[in-house]
Amino acid sequence: MPKPRKHVFVCSQSRPPGHPKGSCVQNGGTELLQAFWQELQKRNLYESIAVSYTGCIGPCDMGPNVLVYPEGILYVRVEKSDIAEIFDKHLLGDNPVERLLAPTEIWN
After folding, report:
1. Which of 47, 51, 63, 76 has a CA that sits 20 to 30 A from residue 105's CA?
2. Going by CATH, does the domain composed of 6-94 fall within 3.40.30.10?
């Protein structure tokens, strides 16, 4: 297996309905993960991009969240309609999608 150039982690944290922290699954995280896998397949980028599900990567109230390595870029409120742009601009073009970036306060 070749080492991926980028690794995308899609939050798949599920909490009970009504949990005060919320969860990415309740906000469409599962469907988002499936859509990322579909886009990866459509573009046949298995040798350079990896897409994995993960547990909580915070901030739950801004999910679904997506984390891209090696840069450590956190995207919040990602929708299926954002995936092509993430692939084009960030995963292939090395330019993060500014409008989806988590606020800098998240990291403090």
Report:
1. 51
2. yes
d(CA 60, CA 41): 28
> What's this model's pTM, rounded to 2 decimal places?
0.92
Domain boundaries, the chain: 6-94
Between vectors from CA 57 to CA 63 and to CA 2, what angle results, nearest 5°?
110
Instruction: Decide if 6 contacts 68 (C-beta within 8 A).
Output: yes
Of all helices (H) and strands (E), which one includes residue 90?
none
Give start and end residues of each alpha helix (H) in 13-93. 29-43, 83-85
Cis peptide before 96 (omega within 30 of 0): no
The secondary structure of residue 29, as a DSSP letter, is: H
Per DSSP bridges, beta strands 49-54 and 6-11 are parallel
Phi, psi of 80 (to 5 degrees): -55, -35
Dist. CA 86–CA 89, nearest whole Å: 5
